[in-house]
Amino acid sequence: MFPTLTRTEAQARHWDIIIAGSSFSAMFFLQGLPKGLSVLVIEKGRHMTHAEQIASGFRNLEAVPMNNRSGHDKEWVFHSLLGGNSNCWWACTPRFHPSDFRMQSLYGVGEDWPLNYDDLAPFYQEVEEAMDVNGGGSDHVLPRDKPFPYPAHLPTRSDKVLRAHSDLWWAQPTARANGGPRAQCCANGVCDECPIDSKYSVLNSFDRLAYDGAYLLTETEVRAARIEGGRATGVLVRDADGEGEISGSAVALGTNALFNAVILLRSGVDHPKLGVGINEQVAQNVLIDGPGLGYFGGTSVTGHGYALYDGPHRANHSGVLMETYNAPMELRPDPGKWTERLRMKIIAEDLPRDDNRVVLDGDDYVIEWAGHDAYAWDGLAWGLERMQSILPDGLDFWGWTEPVKTEKHAMGTHRFGSDPARHVVDPDLRVHGVDGLFALGSGVFPTSSLANPTLTLSALALRAGRKVS
Amino acid sequence: MKRRAFIATSSAAALVAATPAQAQLFRGRKLAALVERCRAHLARSFPASVMAQPATETFLAAYAEHALDRPDLFPEDGAFFHFLTSTTVIAHVETGEDLSFDVIFDPHDAPCSNHLGALYAPVGEHDA
Ligand SMILES: Cc1cc2nc3c(=O)[nH]c(=O)nc-3n(C[C@H](O)[C@H](O)[C@H](O)COP(=O)(O)OP(=O)(O)OC[C@H]3O[C@@H](n4cnc5c(N)ncnc54)[C@H](O)[C@@H]3O)c2cc1C
Ligand code: SF4
Q: Where is the signal peptide (chain B) (predicted)?
């Protein structure tokens, strides 16, 4: 743990950098910083130990005000406590696909990222090492210079059937331990509250996140960045005792795509795209029956399928990423066929739309939600249909569920790029037009990819920290 | 109304007044009935040879204890799920390994006991 301070103690100093938030983006930015800086990490929530979280089931879930005009149920999931959503994530850690960074040049959709897969590759590797990521079998599509830190979890019977059929099925990369200092993952299948603390979290990795000169202030909300003469000079905070200011030479917001936008809006950052375009992937579960399917895999989500991920279809609609589940498992009552059922999740990419936005509402905020883009819905429908043709013979759909209410991957509220007129944040995650103000996290993603965002947002934060001189 | 309230109170009092032996007998009957229901349910899916195993009986007794006081469960479906996740029934059927049962799989109360995870894979399952 970092040494902790009271607000009065924090206010008595001038900090080189103030970081808001204490989850992935905040911690990997901190890791990237040059040595010798004085850093204050300000966290809105409190420190709840892993044991306390398991015992109480409480993690301070944010009630997110939303004006939902989409006609579909919609949720957003953010937890305000030390370590943020690293406490409840499932630790699925794929890299983005090289094409995800070039959607406009390749398919005329969305925007290109201001960097590409190769630029991010060394940072991906570093974060994978920090999280003890395991994986394998994907190098022909997601190239890597060095092997995964740990070998892939054992596959299920279903994975073996699929992998024998095509080399576009492989092990899902994960930070659910298969080697390394944390307990070996044993397929309990309740990863949002892993009972044995196997998956990576900020709380179980504090010793590796240590930074000489970093202090922690908890139960204190950053309300706004103080901006004077075009530069960030500190933050305005609120805690149980009231409001105050803390001074610093630079401020980095790592409070996720939603709260970063809210803080920037409150700070007076005036940009037509700020808060605009909030989005996330949309997903659906599919059940497949057939001979040879079954379990006995090493973790909860064991496999990934990329056959329908990338290709010319992305000019018209999203592709789908397929995830195979080992636990929780689906079973069949049919004699002798008890485990011959596979639960697969298919995930489609969304596009940022101007009518999905975060706006201030007095002292508070609200998400104006018009719905996922047709690009995502059409992709999901296409994926459901096309999947049947890419499965091995003998496997058939048994059924599917309604689309899930959230993938819990909010993004796109302060997108990055080099044009200050179109982008809120520059390629190094600095807010255009404000010196010393960083906005980290998936809020910067110009397009959403089909894959889980956290490895990528962590690699970007690490890279941004490295650029600080 | 007053009279109804009186009856309700007095019947509650009668329950409280049951001796420990009576309460145990009552619970024992409920357990036995639950075991029968779950056994019948499993017998629709599993062959007689599996149903005849001593470990199946041990499982059914433990499962009934596990499920009895949980009105939120569909006990028969739960028995089916837990038979597959808490015993070596798949390995038993496929490779002739002994059918064994140790604990009802529960991710929180008995973590790492998922018998459909790699830790309990049938012999040879993951040989290259
Ligand atoms: C159940 C679940 C499962 C998930 N599984 C996966 C997965 O398998 N793979 C994957 O890639 N992603 C997954 N995600 C998404 C992942 O959790 C997020 O992408 C990731 O946590 C974002 O990191 P972050 O640091 O940007 O923000 P967060 O983790 O949201 O952390 C934000 C931090 O900022 C703090 N904060 C908020 N407002 C303020 C304020 N005003 N002042 C100070 N502090 C503040 C919060 O308390 C929190 O600590 C999952 C999410 C959920 C909910
Ligand atoms: S599968 Fe189980 S052990 Fe592995 S991370 Fe999830 S809950 Fe933890």
A: 1-23
